[in-house]
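Example S7 (structure tokens).
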């Protein structure tokens, strides 16, 4: 078997600012496994600015091997995993580039997501007045949640900032702490009425299981936490209701084959905030807030390899 690894970078039309972090491009690793019989398996993940290796490398290899297995079996991954229902509910992330837009435009964006049928909408925001205003724009037509992007390092600060958010009717408050602080996540969850969500950047199954015990809502990402088997095991241990993170083409397939995963997350491609679609030859349609799973063999990722090559910064063959 041959492996091809591409470090891929796609510039964004404008920067994303999340706290002290500024993102001017999306950098991904694309892995392509070519079996001796010519069939191929593939996977994609974020670099997060880190060297490609360790748990993230293991994760992508495991995902690509699942892709190969599904292709050899001639079935989509979600059916290989035991799924029977071809639709998966989707959480839509909105509000990107909020610092560069009128708040009225962000409100209109959220209303449009609700009108499109999304039953759960999320933004990156933490100021109580802003969160309350955006919650009002969403109204009663969908669940509204916020992502704090790991902004806290201690419990007292987190409590001081989260208590004013605790009566706003939020679906959850996500990632108040880095993923290696399951102890703080658990302590905050004990203090708040609003559910606390965490898990998407957990470095392996043990870390993910610790966050499954600590958080009210488990977020899972097969590309960062050990692969598909790991996130399925963690979702089962959490008792169901897990929500995937990013890479909806892949993760909706995992959700479609896993009863303990309730929903897949997407950053709508039209926002330009996560342009994975520019590397793909086909996507799976989202209608009325649900993704219609492909019946094509594989894990849902159908790459345009010419596009991957155009955006490749470095490439390796093993």
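Recovered sequence:
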């Amino acid at each position: 078997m041959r492996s091809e690894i591409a470090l891929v970078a796609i510039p964004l039309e404008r920067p994303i600012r999340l706290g002290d972090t500024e993102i001017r491009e999306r950098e991904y690793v694309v892995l392509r496994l070519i079996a001796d019989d010519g069939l191929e398996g593939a996977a994609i993940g974020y670099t997060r600015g880190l060297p490609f290796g360790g748990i993230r490398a293991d994760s992508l290899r495991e995902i690509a091997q699942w892709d190969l297995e599904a292709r050899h079996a001639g079935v989509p991954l979600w059916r290989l995993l035991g799924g029977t229902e071809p639709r998966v509910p989707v959480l839509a992330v909105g509000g990107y580039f909020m610092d560069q837009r009128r708040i009225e435009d962000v409100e209109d964006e959220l209303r449009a997501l609700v009108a499109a049928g999304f039953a759960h909408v999320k933004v990156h925001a933490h100021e109580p007045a802003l969160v309350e205003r955006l919650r009002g724009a969403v109204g009663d037509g969908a669940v509204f949640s916020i992502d704090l992007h790991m902004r806290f390092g201690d419990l007292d600060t987190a409590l001081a900032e989260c208590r004013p958010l605790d009566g706003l009717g939020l679906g959850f408050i996500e990632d108040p702490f880095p993923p290696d602080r399951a102890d703080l996540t658990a302590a905050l969850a004990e203090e708040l009425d609003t559910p606390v969500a965490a898990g998407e950047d957990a470095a392996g199954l043990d870390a993910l299981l610790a966050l499954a015990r600590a958080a009210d809502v488990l977020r899972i990402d097969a590309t960062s936490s050990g692969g598909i088997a790991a996130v399925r095991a963690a979702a089962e241990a959490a008792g169901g209701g897990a929500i995937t993170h990013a890479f909806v083409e892949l993760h909706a397939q995992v959700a479609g084959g896993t009863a303990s995963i309730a929903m897949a997350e997407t950053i709508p491609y039209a926002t330009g905030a996560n342009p994975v679609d520019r590397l793909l030859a086909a996507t799976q349609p989202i209608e009325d807030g649900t993704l219609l799973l492909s019946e094509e063999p594989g894990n849902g990722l159908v790459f345009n390899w010419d596009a991957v090559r155009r955006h490749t910064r470095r490439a390796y063959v093993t």
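Notes on this example. Residues 2-75+302-317 form a domain with the Enolase-like; domain 1 fold (CATH 3.30.390.10).
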